[in-house]
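Complex record, four chains
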Amino acid sequence: MAKSLLSIDLDRSPYENENVHNRWHPDIPMAATVKPGDDFILECYDWTGGQIGNNDSAEDVRDVDLTQVHFLTGPVEIEGAEPGDLLMVDILDIGTFEQMQWGFNGFFSRTNGGGFLTEHFPDAQKSIWDFKGMFTSSRHIPGVSFAGLIHPGLIGTLPSKELLDEWNRRELELYKTDPDRVPTLVNLPYADTAHMGRLKGSERDQAAAEAARTVPPREHGGNCDIKDLSRGSKVYFPVYVKGAGLSVGDLHFSQGDGEITFCGAIEMAGWIHLRVDLIKGGMEKYGIKNPIFRPSPLAPRYDNYLIFEGISVDEQGEQHFLDVHIAYRQAVLNAIEYLTKFGYSGAQAYSLLGCAPVQGHISGVVDVPNACATLWLPTDIFDFDLLPNTDGPEKFIKGDVDLPIAPDKE
Amino acid sequence: MAKSLLSIDLDRSPYENENVHNRWHPDIPMAATVKPGDDFILECYDWTGGQIGNNDSAEDVRDVDLTQVHFLTGPVEIEGAEPGDLLMVDILDIGTFEQMQWGFNGFFSRTNGGGFLTEHFPDAQKSIWDFKGMFTSSRHIPGVSFAGLIHPGLIGTLPSKELLDEWNRRELELYKTDPDRVPTLVNLPYADTAHMGRLKGSERDQAAAEAARTVPPREHGGNCDIKDLSRGSKVYFPVYVKGAGLSVGDLHFSQGDGEITFCGAIEMAGWIHLRVDLIKGGMEKYGIKNPIFRPSPLAPRYDNYLIFEGISVDEQGEQHFLDVHIAYRQAVLNAIEYLTKFGYSGAQAYSLLGCAPVQGHISGVVDVPNACATLWLPTDIFDFDLLPNTDGPEKFIKGDVDLPIAPDKE
Amino acid sequence: MAKSLLSIDLDRSPYENENVHNRWHPDIPMAATVKPGDDFILECYDWTGGQIGNNDSAEDVRDVDLTQVHFLTGPVEIEGAEPGDLLMVDILDIGTFEQMQWGFNGFFSRTNGGGFLTEHFPDAQKSIWDFKGMFTSSRHIPGVSFAGLIHPGLIGTLPSKELLDEWNRRELELYKTDPDRVPTLVNLPYADTAHMGRLKGSERDQAAAEAARTVPPREHGGNCDIKDLSRGSKVYFPVYVKGAGLSVGDLHFSQGDGEITFCGAIEMAGWIHLRVDLIKGGMEKYGIKNPIFRPSPLAPRYDNYLIFEGISVDEQGEQHFLDVHIAYRQAVLNAIEYLTKFGYSGAQAYSLLGCAPVQGHISGVVDVPNACATLWLPTDIFDFDLLPNTDGPEKFIKGDVDLPIAPDKE
Amino acid sequence: MAKSLLSIDLDRSPYENENVHNRWHPDIPMAATVKPGDDFILECYDWTGGQIGNNDSAEDVRDVDLTQVHFLTGPVEIEGAEPGDLLMVDILDIGTFEQMQWGFNGFFSRTNGGGFLTEHFPDAQKSIWDFKGMFTSSRHIPGVSFAGLIHPGLIGTLPSKELLDEWNRRELELYKTDPDRVPTLVNLPYADTAHMGRLKGSERDQAAAEAARTVPPREHGGNCDIKDLSRGSKVYFPVYVKGAGLSVGDLHFSQGDGEITFCGAIEMAGWIHLRVDLIKGGMEKYGIKNPIFRPSPLAPRYDNYLIFEGISVDEQGEQHFLDVHIAYRQAVLNAIEYLTKFGYSGAQAYSLLGCAPVQGHISGVVDVPNACATLWLPTDIFDFDLLPNTDGPEKFIKGDVDLPIAPDKE
């Protein structure tokens, strides 16, 4: 195995580690330098930097400080990389740490970030997932286990100053349309909790005040949360600054399409083994604006699916115009309703759909006024037979455990 | 092979065929009756009822009368089916007619329905696809061929009067928000071109005036345009009226997720072989609102993909809030831009993405404010190597053919 | 669909059809001519030419005249093909006839050909399989159904005289080592029942006396019985005579690796849609001695397997040296024993393994003295759960039906 | 990660490690004890115990002492296991050691074990494979890389005394038929180099004199070399002694069906994470003689294949009767011939087919006198296009490197 180029210590705060940062800004100094063709290992905190524990309380999820996220390892400078190049990144492998053989999933409180179904699940809840080699299962969600489709939720290159300004412009504009919205429309720059790596003093303060938050995916990649960008895949990133500046974090043991639970997938600390190379001038040659990638030859296959349809009519019966977001929400709600017939609580079903390798397809997007989205639930991950039959469902799940919940403090 | 339960004659207008209808209404008389466990064949017109020809002009696409679509075969009554049941439908096979070994794809004029990218491709264009057994290729889009993932774009059960009223209510409400929009937000009931099957006279007129158009997918299934609901799959439909009333049409030889070109997939006439059965009271037992289904064991597999990301920032740089529709549009535009680097015209690339078995995934839908959608382009369908390399793309496509175009008449 | 280039009439004997032959010889006249790039349809008898009926008696299997098989359609001349070329054949599609929506499987009497397990199942037995679109099931083997991996058991080019002589030499040599063996080691040329297509008179008689039997696969392809050489695959055949002379027959609706039951797969009459092209001088360019091929993108996938191991120690406990044949026989016997625990008769299990898409892998072939072969049984084709569990197997199969049997006549 | 239950030290001889053994005998003392439901890690030497080095000489392969192999870790006692039970083993994960990020493949000298094609490649040769995360490539075989389908070549339970006696009986019987054969027909018990774990003194000597060699697979599993028995799979082993006695070794980073090169797959040292459980009385309940298993959901998929046929006519043109071993040899030779057209040496091609995830299918085994075997070569593992085309093959491989060779010493 390659040596760790950048290491972390799970027993210390990520703020003490100069090779970690939690904002995007071109002035964040490079933490290490490699050459094209090199492979190397980066160690990563979980996205919250250790705020969530392996226990049966959801209070840590409720009380999480989201201004701190995501803690990324890097940036790594690639020698010779220049703006306009494509940075090829082979994700050679991803692994867990021996001292942290578990991950967490949860939904935030509606007043602190929420999630895809925050109107239905407004309180903080949590599930803990134990790792057994390639497999995972949860003491909070019985009857299911599966192999991890391990991937980085967040990986990307440093933005140029021009690109950063563009991000700030467009996001502020949206923010202003409803600044009081809960959950917020946009996470604006926030200097207090910014970790700018090795950048210190007034330079740090100046950059931190305008540095982009890490929550959304953007042109450089970033927090795409694409489950299929997994170990074994090959990614082509746009390069915006000299040296590219590759950073990575937010590792996931497994996730469903959409990362609907927001907190998030099965979140973990771990290490990632990468190899980098360059296509000089590749952005123009191939007309690249956002990253493109090739999936891994080594992904868990659970090819028997039960597929739920959703259309863009919301829970109140209101008709929306080709709104895939709403259509997918309906498909997800339909799947949750189905799962409860087998004994799961709604929260268990919701959490499961955020963690397991479910697919979310944009099935029809032109048949006005209804978009049609489909949620693909792999049936082989269940210990029991989940398919419909003429006898009706059997309550395999006894209801003796549920996800911990932590209502908002008054 | 089972005998055709309901036949058609491609040389005659669908309006002359009593076993065809093009609206949804509970009063449409059953065209045939079967028992649970029966299997049977239904013959289907292409969705336009023969308005589009195998030629090199897009004028027929430009001039199509969309108030006529979709011509469906049925409804088929299933003995013993009652509201609240689940109707299980095995799609045993789908095939083409010997006299129509071709299909069509196109984008409508922006003033007549448009398509997913109508702002970019405002004029009517068309591509013709020849069938050679399981495979198809187009004289208008060189360099590509693939096996058909054949499926019905439209299949569903008759709505009850209550459900129909609900559809009309919610769609009218949306329509009123912008009645002059081009393309229209909603296709309202339209009696003139309604084909109500065997329903005649004043009963026909009364029903036609309120019968739902067939364009959108709804709770009964309908025009879902789900490419994976293909031959070999098993579908569970809600039953809303006595006898269920199963109708089907809009057969597709192949389609990409989203059916982005709207006109549509590779559209074809053909036959479909079905078997039906019932789960009594299944809607309540399994908590079913929309159809659910299991995919076929027999689907073409093109497992090498190049995947394009898109985020919910539109072409003008405006930031939208978790809008998967816009994110998928960006992913599609990114793929089109990429394909043009190999010599395809934009229209060829757009059409190809509507026809080939591309996947559209809802990858991230919680990372405010950006949704992340991915378009999965199968690379093995191309005659040449489409992957990025350090030399840059080669123009394999010479540009000597393009899609026919028919600008709007003044 | 392309027109049938060569047709058959199921109601007439194949001996009356000049476009059919049942021996290999370079002098068999071409039945039709096509050009490189052409696609065309050939209609085919089942391999026995209609000797087996859709009934519940195995007497026809017992009494079959194996000197008649296999009835092939062709040969088709490809213009410009010369010895040393490679003939590329795209299998565009394969289908059944409306009047024969069923197929048969069986094991021959030990005294009339036998089968892989003829010592264990010495009497003629038969199962009938009904086709429902892409799927098949048998009234003689309950609890199982699956999609057909349709393929030609037999497809090949005409041998040159030199090649034919070589076949006759080497096979005769083997025959002489044990001429009285039952079943026979080799099927020698046999003029009486030879059908030489359009060849008549003394020329026919002379050729028939030396024409090769169609039973074994050879350098030209022939009776390979490779289940994966299915519709959608692309095959490269050596060309030995001017015009190549492509013939095909012995269509199978489905088969397991090995075609262990010999009579055979799920045997059917039907049509096959082919496209041909040439690689001039391809045998030398690519060093080709036997056909090579690429599998279809459209094969049924039943990816959950229960895998049985077998080693080259025979049923009597005798040790054989790296004998894969014996190792596979043990794996097959192990699978049969397992299936009987769920209520199947041995004959049902044996027949099922001959018909379903089981895989047979040569897993280890160097670990002296034991070869290791594995039989892969797809579990999703069963209506019930076939996997081991702590409670032991449940007898889902009630034993009220079995395969018809026809003991040898005294 | 679970702790290592049994550890090794790569810098010390396996003979110094009491938790290792290289023979099968019921008297080998248990090295550790676990309970049903436990998971644990076993560390394993490479099969030769470190005799082969990461260098460019094949002398170590030539001079290997095969009487020492295979070094196994164990036996592990499972509490409560009794003869007649089934031992369920989940292979939760397998990994490499940081200090040994490489593996080796080779063919032995014909006078020292040989290999599947020893008549064609009679001298010792070697290739070294570097690991980069999940992927591997070799400096001795350019143009190819692939993800590892990691698996234990050897895993099994202790035999009872009765079973051991049966093994010795039948293998000696075969040995006597040609005791002077080179390579040998059977590896007889050989006390000198036997490592009997903790067994010492006269008990050790007595057991060593009759202990079975580890080369062949047998009823207890053992050296099956089944590439698909990989991490993520679930295996059911017969139990022959109290406590079962599970041992494992001979880890492979990757292997082709057949392990044709004998030395062997890509051989590695590493660790394996297992979980065990019991089905009481399972051998009788399920009729189990040899192990059965379910494949992993997480296997590398290279689904584009070029498939080579072989029939049971040997290289000298002699006809054999349904001999799958010979048929597979022809398929392998055909593939090697094909690969040399692209510039590979025969030895490179042979080694590649032993290492890469090629499939070997028993395609037809009843069409007397020819068996038909197929070798499935995954084309996506090559950096270049390996498919036939009308222009003929291009020599992508320049021939500047080859496998080291070490001719026999005089």
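Note: Chain D touches chain B through five residues (CB under 8 Å).
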